[in-house]
Design brief:
202 residues, alpha/beta, 6 helices, 35% helix
């Protein structure tokens, strides 16, 4: 099959990789939630061979991910598992969870399910790495993000740029502590949480 292509991955992959080199240096097992085309996974894992990276997404995206992974043939990128945050969660325990440009396309119910499910897969002390656009205190960080938010809501009312405070409240309910928020190019952010040593499910 012809591989799907997400042009935004070409623009943001190097800035994200620079952060991953730092914060995932001591990580080993990564679950990516919402792998999309799989382009992020293969780019990062070619540069970070110490990681074992589990791709995942909804069924309609799996053939595209498989096509990219087959071409790359990287031993540390695992075949995608079928996964919707509103359904059953994967078995296994990971010391990091990665998700990029997902929270603003999920419904709020799905965002709630995303954070509620994390204690079942994220090991004590594990890291949650989220990349994407966010609001702070109900305000957009740029006119372009405000326009993007409006376009999302016009296409699908359940979508929209999320507020950091609202998302962090869900994270705290699941035993996660926000340890860093880092500004990235194109008015995006990396948010990094750490799972409590006592709150992760056994």
């Amino acid at each position: 099959m012809e591989k799907p292509n997400a042009p935004s991955t070409e623009k943001n992959r190097e800035p994200i990789l620079a952060v991953l080199r730092e914060v995932f240096a001591d990580r080993r097992q990564v679950l990516e939630i919402g792998s999309g085309t799989g382009q992020h996974a293969i780019h990062f894992c070619a540069q970070l061979p110490h990681l074992s990276w589990q791709t995942s997404d909804r069924p309609e995206f799996l053939p595209g991910i498989r096509a990219w992974l087959a071409e790359a043939a990287l031993p540390n990128v695992l075949p995608p598992c079928e996964f919707d945050v509103l359904g059953p969660w994967p078995n296994g325990r990971y010391d990091a969870v990665y998700s990029a440009n997902t929270l603003h396309i999920m419904s709020w119910a799905a965002v709630e399910a995303f954070f509620a499910g994390l204690p079942t897969v994220l090991a004590p002390g594990g890291l949650l790495f989220i990349y994407g656009p966010f609001m702070f205190n109900g305000r957009h960080t740029s006119d372009s993000n405000a326009a993007f938010d409006q376009s999302l809501r016009e296409k699908a009312p359940h979508q929209g740029v999320r507020d950091v405070a609202a998302v962090d409240a869900l994270a705290r309910q699941s035993g996660l502590e926000l340890v860093e928020q880092r500004a990235m190019p194109s008015n995006n952010f990396v948010l990094l949480w750490r799972m409590s040593d006592v709150c992760a499910s056994t």
